[in-house]
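User: tokens in, sequence out, please.
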């Protein structure tokens, strides 16, 4: 019995499905063949040597460095007692927008720009003036606190 009323479009769809099925079968057989030849997980393993380079050979167990468990410290690093986070710093008011009420101070030690809000200004200060300030931490980063003219 023949196919009844098979249109040109239906015939093309059927041919494409058969071709797709045959291609899938060929790929499956090719993978099966490659698996027998040794192309497996062992070919995909990479090792990292002591300098950080990726190699295909495993490291030599004789060259391993022994580390004592007691030598490993897991903690928050302690701050240097000489370093005071709220020490007075000196800088220059690099820019200040009076209408918006904020500006930036260029720290003379680190040359970083630190945000300053008008609420932290104790004196009437204009751009280019030397000021003393403390550093505070806010949600968006560091900002100047207790800003006074020198």
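Assistant: Sequence out:
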């Amino acid at each position: 019995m023949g196919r009844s009323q098979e249109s040109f479009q239906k015939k093309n769809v059927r041919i494409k499905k058969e071709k797709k099925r045959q291609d899938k079968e060929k790929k499956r057989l090719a993978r099966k063949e490659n698996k027998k030849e040794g192309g497996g997980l062992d070919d995909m393993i990479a090792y990292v040597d002591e300098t950080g380079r990726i190699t295909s050979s495993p490291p030599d167990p004789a060259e391993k460095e022994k580390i004592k468990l007691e030598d490993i410290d897991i903690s928050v690093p302690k701050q240097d007692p000489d370093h005071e986070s709220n020490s007075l710093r000196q800088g220059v008011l690099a820019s200040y927008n009076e209408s918006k009420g904020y500006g930036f101070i260029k720290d003379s030690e680190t040359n970083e720009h630190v945000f300053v809000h008008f609420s932290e200004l104790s004196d009437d200060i204009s751009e280019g003036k030397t000021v003393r300030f403390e550093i505070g931490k806010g949600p968006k980063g560091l900002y100047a606190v207790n800003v006074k003219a020198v």
